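A.,

Following up on our hallway conversation. C-alpha cells first:
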C-alpha cells in the first residue's frame, strides 16, 4: 500500500461515491412538490456532488499519465485493454438487462440494437447516458499522448497547456465559447488532466514565488478543506435558488470557475493531508491503514467497473425498493445509495475471481 500514491485511491473512491450519489438522487430532487422539505435538502446535497466525480477521475489520469514517456503502442495498448474491453462487456450486459426489465414494463425504450449501441457509444441520451465517460476519457488519453510527445521536444509544453487551459475555462465560464460539437466537447475535458498533473507536482517548498510565505502542509490542508466547504455550500444555495425560481433543477457546469476551484481544493486537501504531520497525520494514517485503507484501496481498484455496472444495480434496486419510497423517502435514498455502492463493488470483486471474465470486469 505504501508504494502507491494513496491519496489517488482516496480521490477515486470519493469520485465514485459522488457519481453514484447524484444518480441516486436525480429523480427525487427535481420534484417540485418536495421543495423546502427535509427530503429536498437531503437530495439536494447528494445531487450537488454531480460536478465532482467525473472531473476528479480525469485529474487523476492526468496526474498519472502526463509527462510519461511511452511509445504509441504501449500507451494505447495499456489504456485500451483496461478501458475498452470492460466497456464493451458491460454495454452488452446492460442491453440485455434493459431488454429483460422492459418486459416487466419497468423501462420502456427503443430496443433496436443498432440505435442502442450508437447512442450508448456516444453517450447521447437514455438511462445509459452515464456511459459518455468512456469515449470522453479515450479522447483525453489521445490528447495526453500528444502532449507527452510535444513535451519531449519542448519541456515548456505542459506549462503552456496549463495557461491555455485556464484561458479556456475563463472563456467558457463567460460564455464566450460554447462547445456544441461532441468531439471538441470531449477534448475540452483534457483541461482537468492538465490541472491534475500540475497540482500533483506542486511543491511549495521548491516554488520560488511562494517559498518565503510561512505555509506548511497542515496549513494548506486546513485551508483547502475550508475552501472546499465554502464553495460546496455556495453551490448548494445556487442550486436551491435555481430550483425554487425556475421550478426545475439546473446544475453548475463542470467548467464553471467556482467548480474548478472546488475540484482543486478537493484534490489539494487529500494531497496535503497525505503529507501532513501531527494530529492531521494521525487522521491520514487512520484513513490509510486498517480496514478503512483496505476498503478505500479496493474501491479505487474497482472504481471503473463500479462506474460501468452501477446503473444496472441502481435500476434493479429502485425496482425492488419502490414500495419503501413513498413512506420513508429519506431512508429509501440512504439505503439506495449504500446498497448501490456495495452491490456494484461486490459484483466487480466476484467477477474478478472468475477466469476469463475477470479481464472484462473493470477492476484494475
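Then the amino acids I'd put at each of the 364 positions:
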Amino acid at each position: 500500500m505504501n508504494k502507491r500514491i494513496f491519496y489517488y485511491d482516496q480521490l477515486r473512491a470519493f469520485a465514485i461515491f459522488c457519481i453514484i450519489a447524484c444518480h441516486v438522487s436525480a429523480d427525487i430532487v427535481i420534484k417540485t412538490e418536495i421543495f423546502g422539505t427535509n427530503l429536498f435538502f437531503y437530495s439536494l446535497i447528494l445531487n450537488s456532488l454531480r460536478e465532482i466525480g467525473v472531473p476528479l477521475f480525469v485529474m487523476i489520469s492526468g496526474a498519472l499519465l502526463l509527462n510519461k514517456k511511452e511509445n504509441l503502442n504501449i500507451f494505447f495498448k495499456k489504456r485500451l485493454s483496461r478501458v475498452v474491453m470492460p466497456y464493451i462487456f458491460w454495454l452488452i450486459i446492460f442491453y440485455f438487462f434493459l431488454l429483460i426489465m422492459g418486459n416487466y414494463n419497468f423501462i420502456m425504450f427503443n430496443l433496436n440494437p443498432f440505435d442502442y449501441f450508437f447512442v450508448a457509444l456516444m453517450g447521447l441520451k437514455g438511462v445509459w447516458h452515464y456511459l459518455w465517460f468512456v469515449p470522453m476519457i479515450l479522447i483525453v488519453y489521445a490528447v495526453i499522448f500528444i502532449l507527452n510527445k510535444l513535451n519531449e521536444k519542448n519541456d515548456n509544453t505542459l506549462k503552456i497547456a496549463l495557461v491555455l487551459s485556464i484561458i479556456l475555462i475563463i472563456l467558457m465560464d463567460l460564455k464566450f465559447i460554447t462547445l456544441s460539437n461532441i468531439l471538441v466537447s470531449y477534448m475540452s475535458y483534457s483541461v482537468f488532466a492538465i490541472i491534475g498533473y500540475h497540482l500533483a507536482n506542486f511543491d511549495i517548498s521548491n516554488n520560488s514565488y511562494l517559498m518565503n510565505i510561512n505555509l506548511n502542509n497542515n496549513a494548506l490542508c486546513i485551508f483547502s478543506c475550508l475552501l472546499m466547504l465554502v464553495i460546496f455550500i455556495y453551490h448548494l444555495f445556487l442550486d436551491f435558488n435555481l430550483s425554487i425560481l425556475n421550478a426545475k433543477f439546473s446544475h453548475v457546469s463542470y467548467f464553471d470557475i467556482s467548480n474548478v476551484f472546488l475540484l482543486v481544493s478537493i484534490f489539494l486537501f487529500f494531497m496535503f493531508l497525505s503529507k501532513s504531520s501531527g494530529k492531521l497525520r494521525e487522521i491520514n494514517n487512520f484513513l490509510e491503514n486498517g480496514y478503512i485503507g483496505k476498503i478505500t484501496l479496493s474501491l479505487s481498484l474497482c472504481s471503473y467497473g463500479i462506474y460501468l455496472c452501477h446503473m444496472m444495480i441502481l435500476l434493479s434496486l429502485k425496482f425492488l425498493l419502490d414500495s419503501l419510497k413513498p413512506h420513508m423517502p429519506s431512508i429509501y435514498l440512504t439505503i439506495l445509495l449504500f446498497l448501490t455502492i456495495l452491490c456494484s463493488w461486490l459484483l466487480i470483486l466476484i467477477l474478478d475471481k472468475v477466469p476469463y471474465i475477470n479481464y472484462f470486469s473493470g477492476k484494475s
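The first helix runs from residue 6 to 29. Curious whether your intuition agrees with the design.

B.
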